[in-house]
Amino acid sequence: xxxxxxxxxxxxxxxxxxxxxxxxxxxxxxxxxxxxxxxxxxxxxxxxxxxxxxxxxxxxxxxxxxxxxxxxxxxxxxxxxxxxxxxxxxxxxxxxxxxxxxxxxxxxxxxxxxxxxxxxxxxxxxxxxxxxxxxxxxxxxxxxxxxxxxxxxxxxxxxxxxxxxxxxxxxxxxxxxxxxxxxxxxxxxxxxxxxxxxxxxxxxxxxxxxxxxxxxxxxxxxxxxxxxxxxxxxxxxxxxxxxxxxxxxxxxxxxxxxxxxxxxxxxxxxxxxxxxxxxxxxxxxxxxxxxxxxxxxxxxxxxxxxxxxxxxxxxxxxxxxxxxxxxxxxxxxxxxxxxxxxxxxxxxxxxxxxxxxxxxxxxxxxxxxxxxxxxxxxxxxxxxxxxxxxxxxxxxxxxxxxxxxxxxxxxxxxxxxxxxxxxxxxxxxxxxxxxxxxxxxxxxxxxxxxxxxxxxxxxxxxxxxxxxxxxxxxxxxxxxxxxxxxxxxxxxxxxxxxxxxxxxxxxxxxxxxxxxxxxxxxxxxxxxxxxxxxxxxxxxxxxxxxxxxxxxxxxxxxxxxxxxxxxxxxxxxxxxxxxxxxxxxxxxxxxxxxxxxxxxxxxxxxxxxxxxxxxxxxx
Length: 619
Prior knowledge:
By secondary structure, the chain is of the alpha/beta class. It has helices at residues 137-141, 154-159, 161-167, 194-199, 231-244, 264-275, 289-294, 310-314, 330-339, 346-354, 413-432, 469-472, 474-489, and strands spanning 15-17, 20-26, 32-38, 44-49, 55-56, 59-65, 72-78, 81-83, 132-135, 171-174, 178-179, 183-185, 207-209, 218-222, 248-255, 279-284, 302-305, 324-327, 361-364, 436-440, 512-515, 530-535, 551-556, 562-563, 573-580, 597-598, 602-610.
């Protein structure tokens, strides 16, 4: 009989206890047990059945003596089947990506926790300072243009951390980076590459690649095929390197139907303790979100989810630190429709622009791993998912996108100029809105997925980031980084809570106000497609650009020119245009006084500055 002191408390985890190894397995049958292998030779050295008296419900236990946990690997048998331990903390050897796992690659091992974390600590990024970069670990550096030594791996990501830091990123969100089987063919066991699968797709339609990883997985170990030799330590190296650079790591976890929701807090706690993870984006159909939030071990961990009943969770009191954040598509659809000039969008856009709840954070984005990239929004009006092998039926049919008059790539100068402008407009939307902005990898230099809005099964040039695009799309990248810097320098653009739209400090202006053709008046008729926004910097503790520098943003998404009514400034101050998404602005001195006529489909940004004769005001 197994001693109660050796049994795990909640999850059926196999573990080392002193000189003993406790194996734990879940099965409704008694025809199951443990298979023990020599870690070096990978030869099986023992087969031990579970005893009936060591069963609690459907959980079987076995305590072994005399085996060195550093020299063995193991799996389970259940009837005639060999079963991998779904709760394994590490596997014997890294699996090759897009290959059926060989038996020895499914062998679990016990790994000593001898990693040196040094002085590692969480960067503690608040949502009002956050800039989030969502990435697929493999796709981020798989392309040879990435220039890294270890393409498509955790180590490859480490090599790119200086780039992310320079870009201004302070939170990375990882698509599933826990272990999962990315490739499977129903009823067939031999290894298959995705190239082979796609060439023979019509003959063998059961071949699938889950490149994204939204499937049940081995939730206690990093993805083995994203490593070079040691997924556990290489993942820890990555997290430690991110923290040293002041960047937090948030992991996506997908739990499909069938996964026990009660296990989720244990899984998340494990990653916080073992891998120093800063937060989780929870996805799936079976998530008991309130129970997760109430877990005391996760009290200071970021939790991202579709939505929360914050009033009930916090009983009407604001939390000391906002750890929860809403992660939903509301901003995406409103901003995309306003961008392309849909009617009746003014009120909806003002709400999304200022949205910034007190009790939780909010993540806003115009693009993500699903849907069109930021650039493809102005290149494709229709999805082009034929390569996915589902006759283009997969993915969203309506993406709120506009191709600027031509579907797909075009060499026409006017089309290319308009697409560049629309991209810049989208970047302005992202970086000027109040909550925490997120981009998907490559959006900063106009990455394209060729119109594929659901590349879940594409492990190729469609999803691999081509770093050569940074130089190819240099104007895109330079404008993006300019807007990141503009946002970062001005606290009024990313306040800790939603602005009140009133002059509660009696400084002469509200913290945030909306305008149109006339100052202090907003036209919201269905046909209106332009909006003015003023932010008063005296409401922010902004020591960088000075409290006197107010910001006025003229959003003209109409295909016609509009004159904006800017509020009158105190004596000695003037409005000066510092940024415009129209190419003509680059030919003018930034410090000149400008009229307030805004060109079609253009965003102009003005700041209030002291009037100086003969001088210029730079951004």
